Structures are given as C-alpha cells and as structure tokens.
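Students often ask what a holo structure prediction actually looks like on paper. The answer is less mysterious than it sounds. You provide the chain, you provide the ligand, and the output is a string of discrete structure tokens encoding the 3D arrangement of the protein together with uracil.
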Amino acid sequence: MVRMYDLIEKKKHGGVLTGEEIRGMVSGYVAGDIPDYQMSAMLMAICFQGMNAQETTDLTMAMVYSGDTADLSGIAGIKVDKHSTGGVGDKTSLVIGPIAASLGVKIAKMSGRGLGHTGGTLDKLESIPGLTTGIDKERFFKIVDEVGIAIIGQTGNMVPADKKLYALRDVTATVDSVPLIASSIMSKKLAAGSDAIVLDVKTGSGAFMKTLDDSITLAKEMVAIGTGAGRKCCALITDMDVPLGHAVGNSLEVAEAVRTLRGEGPADLTEVCLQLAANMLFMAGKGTVAECRALAEAVLADGRAVDVLAAMVKAQGGDPAYIYDTSRFPAAPFVRKVLSPADGYVTCIDAEGCGIAAAMLGAGRAKKEDAIDYSAGICLHKKYGDRLKKGDVLAELYASDEARFAGAEQKFLDSYTIGEAPAAEKKLVYARVTADGVERF
Ligand code: URA
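The corresponding structure tokens follow.
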C-alpha cells in the first residue's frame, strides 16, 4: 500500500509520481483507506506543481479502472460523446445531444454536477420532476439504443474515483488544474465507451482556464489522452468570458435549451451549439463539417430534436410535459430586478462573478452535501455589447429565500462593467484542436 504522506511530500516538491504510486493512491482513496484530508493536500500540491503527460495519463487510466467500464459495441452505429470543461449558463449538452441523436448518432453521455462557480448537466436535468440520472448500465444502454440518447451520472460503479475526487475538488478550491480537469473528464469519457469524443474547452473569466493558451494546453492534453486510448477526439475552444445564453440556474437553463432546440434560442448559445453539433456529426461520419452544420441548422429550424429530448426525459423517469411546456417548472417565489446604475454599453459580464451570484441564490453548492434550489438563478436581460439607459433592467434574480438577495445582488452587479463606448466584437469559438494540431479561427 502506498504511504500517502510520502506521495504528498514528493509532489509538494515537484517530484514525478510513478504509475504504481498513482494507481495505489487512486485505489486507496476509492477504498476509503486514504482520507479526504490527505487527498485534499495532494490535490492542492498537484494544483501548484502540475503533472507531466505520463502522470496525467496514468491518473486518467487509474480513474478509468477504478470501476466498471462500458462496452457499447452492442449498440449499433457510431457512439459520440461530448463534454464541456465547465462554464456559466452552459447548457450546450441539452441542445447538441438531442440534435445529434435526431440525426441518427448515438449519444451515451456521462455528465457531471455543478463544480465551483459552474453549473452541471446532471443538476439541470434533475430539475425535471421524476428524472433520474442514476441509471444502471443495462438501462443506460437500452435507452441509448432505443431513444438515441441518455445522459447519466457516474452511477453504479463507473469511475468512482472521479465521483469522489470531483466532490472534493469542488469544495477545496482544487478545480483549475490541467491534469486534474483532463483526468476527470477523460476518465469519464473513456469509461463511457463512445467511439468519438468532442470536447468543449471553455476559455475566459468564467472558465477554469482563464487564458486561450491555457485552454489550448488543456485541450491538447485531453485530445492526446483520447487518441492515445484509441478514440477519435477533437476539441473546440469556446468563449466563457461572459455567460452563455441568458439563463443561469438549473430549470431556467433547461427551458432555454428547449427554446434553442425550437430555433428560438439566444444567438450566442445557438452558434456555439451549431459548431459543436457539426463536429459531433462530422466525427460520426455524417459529412464535412460544413455539411454537418447545415444538417444541425435544419434540425433547429423544424424543432424535431425537442421530441428526442422529451423521449430521453421520459425514458429516464422524468415528466416530458415539462419539455413541451417549460412554464410548468415551478417559478422561484422571489424575484429581484437589477437595474443599470448608468447609461452606456455592457463591456463585460464577468462570468465567474455571475456564476457565484447564481450559486449564492441557491443554484449551486457551497458544501458537498448542500441541496440545489432548481428554480434559483439569473435571467440576463442585457448582454455583452448591449446599449443601456440608467434604470434599464440588467437582469432578474430568482430565489426561494429573500435573504439570499443580500450578497448575491451586489456580487451580480459587480460582475457588470458599463463603459461609455461600444464593446469590441467577441469571438464565440477561438480554435479547434485535433490530433493533427491547432486551427485558430
Ligand atoms: N468537468 C469535469 O467533468 N471535470 C472537471 O474537472 C472539470 C469539468
């Protein structure tokens, strides 16, 4: 058995952990022999000292083999998975999964919960009454086969190492590290067994990777792990300087995803979804990226993927009526309008600040065991680049407890910068990373 104290000491001084040490550490932690406090210290040491490519691959594979892996070969067709590194207002999985599934691609997706200031697909889905993301392997396969898409958590015994580490990182400020993010995401993606993986690596103030260079480093690392494990893999680097779309908060985001599937979504969310969906379809062999984009556009134009999302919700025990009529989601009892303090233009909406404000309203967790308030969150009325008059409504904040507005409102307001001149145009997608290299846009 590894002596965790020695490993922490080694990593603290920038040492390189061997494959055997990493496997011993991961299995010891999953078995409960290594306590949270020692793993927290190790995670912090990794945040400061990093890991080389071999250590990151060893950590990923140790996490993959910490539990069961899925063999999707029984499901006909190319199975494509997608994962985002995490953002604010990022509901892309709920849009592009159904788009791709409606075009015959099989989506067997394992998602995560909110982490730090970012939201998680599982929390969003669980805002739909009755829906469960805790589905065993057999049922997961059956839903993917019959409906074309299922989105589940690390249920049963799949990647238990990530399940424990993810929850620990969320509350120990150890999220924003390339090896920890890469191993967390890629262990889930490899264990879930899809043939191809599209990664949405966020960059900017609301992302764990704040700079384009760091985001490209993370993307290259993940693509290398994926291709090294024999999967097709590519990454898009997408903007997370400002929240994506208008809704931040769980059921609010499900409703916005449905609007987007009907072709009525915000322009930024729609564009990012189309580019991600095009790459998923491309990986599934549906044509060139441009042809695949046209296929995805046609799906949004006729709204057919709403039926696919509703079918998935039903298969996972949820009530599909909430998808067909999102006004059924319970509204938060308290609404606070935040008004612009000045005339001008929105020149920044700090996505991280906005994500923290949403969490303070109840949409996220401060401690592992905290419950989520699904109706809490933010609806942005003014976005990056918009013109403002003093007193215009910047956003509406939603909460179940009025006292939550106290800190959250100021935090939210602080995330807006109002300038006198119009803001410069922003890119939504900065680069595409494949095994062949980096294509910057
Ligand atoms: N998403 C994950 O699944 N893991 C991370 O570490 C960050 C985002």
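Residues 85-86, 112, 115, 175, 180-181, 184-185 surround uracil (CB under 6 Å).
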